């Protein structure tokens, strides 16, 4: 009798979100502004122009602070999870989720980051959310920093370039670790810690026009050092507060293929892959990889470290490696004249063998298996896929249904290669949280219309809508996948 293929018993199926894109209530109940609350949607900018969407100046920020406009600043309203959390978690439970990834908004706890006392209403909100999760048998998976540091760090400090931000962050971590002890046991420190290189503002609260007389790239490297130290200290705190806590790093798994077998294309691929691995290398091995130190030396940058920095990094590496995976792209030593296409925080050369999403991201399920093998071989630690999904223009038909067959086929093909990596390549995968399990505001383009969810949210790019939730076709499909622990995928029954 042929053995039915299915995922291991206890596999953590679930979905992911981020406070700044999902909660809304940007100034409710004592919450302070985060860097995300002052970023305007640029409707006129091509959705594939990633860097243009990320660009921001001090002038833009001050202008945003002068208005409570919700339309121009979509992340201020998100999907209003703040007022819908019971309904949303019940819908996740209906699908059979075992885990729900969300972030704690740091400025909902310490409105300015440097406050003496925390905001009790913010703390209570997350107590209520975690209680609701546990009531449904869903484990919270909490990201401590997901692109939402307090805006005050930009204006009255030098973002993560300021050494004192480490202390502010560890004070916040200690508070939430103790407050939610016994409710949360899975933690991630920094979302896509590597991305500070590509968007220093979103990750590191760094605005280039505030460092005009410095080499901004070196400012980013130093801010990154502070985040590595903060991440290790956070791991130390979480372990001391509760030895049952499991702490993961989180990287943007960018997967590159050489455009041709020309050795220089292969070398370019290897160099570009290392350019994102160097951050997870540091968090997993507890020390800077030599090739990153070589790069710093060649660029004339010297890390300003304090006694104990390297020791704490070495003593508190992460327990598991989590990552986001959406797409792959090609690279070439000479990209001149090559057709490019967009991707998650990057633009790459188009792969002629792959289809792309409406946003230009290349759909590559095999690339997920390649990524899993690469990461597992590199780190030999359990993996956790904490972001994977398809952004698409979903349409509600006249019967009020959303037939997102394209999303079902995206997930079906990615789930199959995930199991191949586990069963044939020996990869240890703890769980999977789709991005995003419910429609929310896009990180890059600030669009509501770039929908990822199994659950539709009635809100558009102009902020119009009822915020009503609708189950998409993929909602019912995912329910079957989880019920059968993936077996239905291989019996053509889902
Ligand atoms: C990742 C972020 C997520 C999410 C995802 C999708 O980099 O960690 O927050 O936004 O990208 O990207 P986008 O929302 O731009 O489609």
Description:
The chain is of the alpha/beta class. It has one domain: Glycosidases (TIM Barrel, Alpha-Beta Barrel), CATH 3.20.20. The protein has 17 helices and 14 strands. The protein has an 8-stranded parallel beta barrel with strand order 1-2-3-4-5-7-11-12, surrounded by 4 helices. The chain has a two-stranded parallel sheet with strand order 6-8. It has a two-stranded antiparallel ribbon with strand order 9-10. Helix 8 runs parallel beside helix 10 and helix 14 runs parallel beside helix 15. The protein binds 6-O-phosphono-beta-D-galactopyranose (BGP). 6-O-phosphono-beta-D-galactopyranose binds next to loops.
From the structure above, extract its key features.
two-stranded parallel sheet, 14 strands, 8-stranded parallel β-barrel, alpha/beta, single chain, globular, binds 6-O-phosphono-beta-D-galactopyranose, TIM Barrel, 494 residues, 17 helices
């Amino acid at each position: 009798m042929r053995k039915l293929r299915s995922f291991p018993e206890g596999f953590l199926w679930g979905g992911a979100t981020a406070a700044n894109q999902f909660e809304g209530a940007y100034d409710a109940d004592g919450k302070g502004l985060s860097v995300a609350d002052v970023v305007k949607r640029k409707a006129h900018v091509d959705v594939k122009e990633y860097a243009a969407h990320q660009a921001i100046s001090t002038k833009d920020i001050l202008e945003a602070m002068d208005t409570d406009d919700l339309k121009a600043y979509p992340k201020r309203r998100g999907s209003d999870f703040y007022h819908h959390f019971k309904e949303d978690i019940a819908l996740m439970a209906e699908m059979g989720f075992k885990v729900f990834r969300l972030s704690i908004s740091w400025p909902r706890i310490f409105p300015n980051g440097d406050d003496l006392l925390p905001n009790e209403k913010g703390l209570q909100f997350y107590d209520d959310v975690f209680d609701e999760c546990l009531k449904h048998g869903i484990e919270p998976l909490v990201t401590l920093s997901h692109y939402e540091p307090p805006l005050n760090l930009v204006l009255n400090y030098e973002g993560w370039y300021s050494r004192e931000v480490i202390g502010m962050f560890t004070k916040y971590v200690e508070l939430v670790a103790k407050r939610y002890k016994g409710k949360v046991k899975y933690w991630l420190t920094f979302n896509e810690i590597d991305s500070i290189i590509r968007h220093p503002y979103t990750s590191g609260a760094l605005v280039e026009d505030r460092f005009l007389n410095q080499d901004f790239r070196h400012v980013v490297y130093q801010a990154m050092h502070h985040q590595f130290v903060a991440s290790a200290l956070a791991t130390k705190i979480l372990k001391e507060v509760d030895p049952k806590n499991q702490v993961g790093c989180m990287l943007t798994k960018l997967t590159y293929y050489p455009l041709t077998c020309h050795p220089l294309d292969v070398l370019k691929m290897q160099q570009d892959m290392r350019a994102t691995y160097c951050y997870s290398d540091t968090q997993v091995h507890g020390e800077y990889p030599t090739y990153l130190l070589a790069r710093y030396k060649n660029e004339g940058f010297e890390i300003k470290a304090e006694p104990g920095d390297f020791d704490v990094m070495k003593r508190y590496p992460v327990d598991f490696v989590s990552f986001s995976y959406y797409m792959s792209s090609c690279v070439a030593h000479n990209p001149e004249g090559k057709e490019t296409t967009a991707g998650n925080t990057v633009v790459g050369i188009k792969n002629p063998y792959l289809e792309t999403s409406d946003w230009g991201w290349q759909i590559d399920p095999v690339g997920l298996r390649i990524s899993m093998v690469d990461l597992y071989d590199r780190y030999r630690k359990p993996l956790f896929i904490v972001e994977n999904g398809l952004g698409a223009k979903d349409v509600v038909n006249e019967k009020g249904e959303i037939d997102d067959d394209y999303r079902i086929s995206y997930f079906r093909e990615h789930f199959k290669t995930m199991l191949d990596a586990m069963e044939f390549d020996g990869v240890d995968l703890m769980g999977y949280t789709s991005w995003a399990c419910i429609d929310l505001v896009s990180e890059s383009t600030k669009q509501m219309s770039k929908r990822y969810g199994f659950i539709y949210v009635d809100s558009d790019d102009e902020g119009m809508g009822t915020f009503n939730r609708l189950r998409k076709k993929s909602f019912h499909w995912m329910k079957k996948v989880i019920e059968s622990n993936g077996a239905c995928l291989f019996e053509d029954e889902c």
